[in-house]
Specification:
Distance between the termini: 61 Å
Number of strands: 0
Low-confidence stretches: none
Mean pLDDT: 94
Number of domains: 1
Shape: elongated
Radius of gyration: 20 Å
Order of helices and strands: HHHH
């Protein structure tokens, strides 16, 4: 595989992950609306509260999975470039900088649902709070 093919594969992966992320952003917005509506109009209905909670948690799970796929694709691209360089192939200085920045080695990356970026963890916790608090929090 050449550097061009590696980056082309990375571009295709990023495009599909980006399209999925757009759907997840819309789904999170729907979860926020459902949480607010449930908290305001159905605060005494345990079935509505449970349904809104399950929808919100499932949405957050798939949001996290989208980030996990994006992270894995970046790590896989770095790994493929490091492997190409190790096997004697030529890579550009930009590709070499990408490998250095990501800390890639010739050991294949592993997929993980646990975010490695603390900013993503903070974002997901904020989304979780914004979904659950209107449903289960105290009412005025």
């Amino acid at each position: 595989m050449t550097e061009f093919e590696i980056f082309a594969l990375s571009s295709m992966n990023s495009s599909s992950t980006g399209a999925y992320q757009i759907a997840m952003a819309f789904s999170i917005w729907v979860a926020f609306r459902a949480a607010n509506l449930t908290g305001q109009q159905y605060a005494d209905n345990i079935i509505a509260k449970t349904a809104a909670t399950v929808f919100g948690l499932a949405t957050l799970f798939y949001f996290n999975m989208t980030y996990a796929f994006w992270s894995f694709n970046q790590a896989a691209t770095s790994y493929r470039l490091a492997e190409l360089k190790e096997s004697g192939g030529d890579i550009s200085s930009m590709a070499s900088a990408f490998v250095t920045q990501t800390g890639a080695t010739t050991t294949p990356p592993t997929f993980s649902l646990v975010p490695g970026d603390p900013i993503i963890i903070a974002l997901e916790l904020a989304i979780l709070t914004m979904i659950l608090y209107p449903i289960w929090g105290p009412k005025k």
